[in-house]
Every structure is written in C-alpha cells, then in structure tokens.
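Case 380 in the screening queue. Each case pairs one protein sequence with one candidate compound; here the compound is iron/sulfur cluster. For every case the pipeline is the same: read the inputs, emit a complex structure as tokens, and attach any notable structural observations.

Predict complex for case 380.
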Amino acid sequence: MPDETQVTSARDPRAADGGSALELHPHAARRWTPKRVLVTPAALDEPHGQRIVARVEALGIEVERLRANRLVGLRGETERETYARAKSTLAVVVSPPSRRRLQPISPSADWRVDLAEGCPAHCQYCYLAGSLSGPPVTRVYADLDAILDNLTAYLGTGQVTSRSTRRSQEGTTFEASCYSDPLALDHLTGSWQRAVEHFGAWDAPVQLRWTTKFADVDRFVALPHAGRTRVRFSVNCLPVTQRWEGGTSTLEQRLAALRRLALAGYPVGLTIAPIMPIDGWREHYDHLLDLVETATADVPDLDLTAELITHRFTATSKEVLLGWYPRTTLEMDEAERAVKRGKFGATKHVYPKPVMDDLRQWFRRELEQRLPACRVLYWT
Ligand code: SF4
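Case 380 output:
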C-alpha cells in the first residue's frame, strides 16, 4: 500500500542552501476561523442554512442572526479596514435568483455552479479582484438543495466537453469554484461534501469539478464520490506560493491532499496557475513537477489532468489588487505585457507572444516527458 502521509523530494533546490527535503504533512491542513459570522432570516429558513449554523456553533463560533436579508456594517473607516473586516467575515445568505440560470465557463467546464462567493485567503493576484462588487466578504449559500436540484435541467447540455474528444467521457461538467475556494470553507458549511455525494448518487454522465489552494480533505476521502468529482489543486512554483498566496495551504500540503484523494479513487488535477516567468522559472517549475511526480508516482489507476493558466490582469483587477495589497511585489506592468481582447471588448494584459511560446513549449515538453499519464486540458 503506498504511503499516503509523506512525500519527500530529493531534488528540492532549497537543499543546496542547507534546507532539508520537503516533507508533506497532510493532516496539518489549514482551517479558517472567521471572526464574525452573520446569517440572514431567509438563510435560516433553509435546511442547509440551519445545518451551517449548527456546524459553526459546534465549532464554538458565535453566529449573529440578522433582522433583515441585507448585509450591512461591512465597511471600515479605510479601504484597508474594510478589506480586513470583510475578509474575516462569513455571511450565510440565500443565492441571488439569477444564479439559477447557469453561465457557460469555457474552457474549464460546461457550466458554472456557485455554492459560495468570496474567499478568506489573500492571494495578491486573486482572480476575484474586480469580478465581485463591494467588500470581499465570504458569502456561503444556504439554498444548496435547490442549487443542486437545478442542475438536472442541464444534463446533456454544454459545449466544452461535448466538443472535445479528449473530454467527452466527462459528460456534462459543472465547475464549483469560480468565485470561491471550496476547501477553504467546507469545514464550516459541508456544502461541497453534499455536492460530492449528490454527484456520486447521480447515475448519469456528469462531473463536478473544483479547484482549491487548501488541503483539508479528511472529510472527503471516504465519501461515495463514484468518480464523478474531479478535484484539482491549484499549484505553482514555491517562490510564487510563498510570496503571493497568503493564507493558503502550503504547496506540500496541497500535493499531499491530491495524493490522498487520488488514492481514494477520485479523478484529480493540477491547475498550474498563474504561471509566471519569474527569474529562474525553469528551475522552479522543474521542482514543482518533481514534487508532483513524487506525489503521484505509485498511485494505482491515476486519473490526472492539468490546466495551465498564465498570469494576466485587467485595469480593474490591478486597481482593486493595489488597493488591497499596496506594497505588493507582483509584476503588473502594462509596458511588459501584450494586450488580449476578450469577447465583450474587455482588455487583458498577458505576456508577450515570445514569452508565452517559451512557457508553453516548456510545459508541454516537460509534462509529456515527466507525467505521461497526465492529460493537459488547456493552456491559456
Ligand atoms: S485562494 Fe483563489 S479565491 Fe482565494 S484569495 Fe487565492 S486566488 Fe483568490
């Protein structure tokens, strides 16, 4: 039986500096404790809202029962204070009715399904910056049962997986981490556990998918997932995870968690993002792939995918991120970037073509050679 508790890498570049090889300790997963938990009356009417409140109170966290369904009092005196206050607040609410009409989410999946919005971590390139309005409070949805029931109508629809011969066996895919990080929150809500069980019992060509920078998988290992949930771990080279991914689980913990789920029969994946050509990037990403190789080498029937996403920013996301992290060392210099226009005229700043080509060729070659069983789903 492969050892699921520890993975070490003899090729850790830090070893040359006198550092020891990395040890992965999956049971030391990081868990968020919000300072403030709010619940609206509408959320308390929902069975899952009641389950979340019971779960949070059982953890010894006080829950404020609001009189109205609007969230107020989230702003501080300064932008920093508003950020700090919002990031430490969990709100249990009912999802907006518009969320019942699912949006396509190419290239990741056919449809986006939201079980929450917001995240307590502090990544300095956060994908949510500029996408969500107002203070970055974490909202978790109490109407989970209706959200999951609504998915039935989408069976057999969607463009992403049906058009791709490489992905047609996935069935209709639902992405449940567009606006949040599931494993940052599930210990407080249980929502993604229920979603895994829902898909496990849904005997149809469907797949639930999510990606995470956390490692808190204890409660998922023994769930009846029936292979219909693919959990991807968002990973990066060590300098990126250590400099710019505050409040997340370490890279080593994430890979140990991936290993545990793979050993439990889950399809798993790597979301390598955001890829950045920092100084020495080949060596650093080489080390990342080395850790992945070690973590997956002896997993029986490994089903591993990779999604490769380079760093990009918009004028709006840059402004929001500089408000949240005014002293960030993250490069967001328009002069260093090429412009990419999106479907609705939105402008993104991406790496220039020669840099993109270099990165893409390197990842394609290295993944083919070192992780031949890994299916690359897309590069962007
Ligand atoms: S884990 Fe994801 S959603 Fe959370 S702060 Fe980091 S990038 Fe944003």
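Case 380 observations:
- The longest helix spans residues 353-370.
- The pocket of iron/sulfur cluster is lined by residues 119, 121-123, 126-128, 181, 213, 248 (CB under 6 Å).
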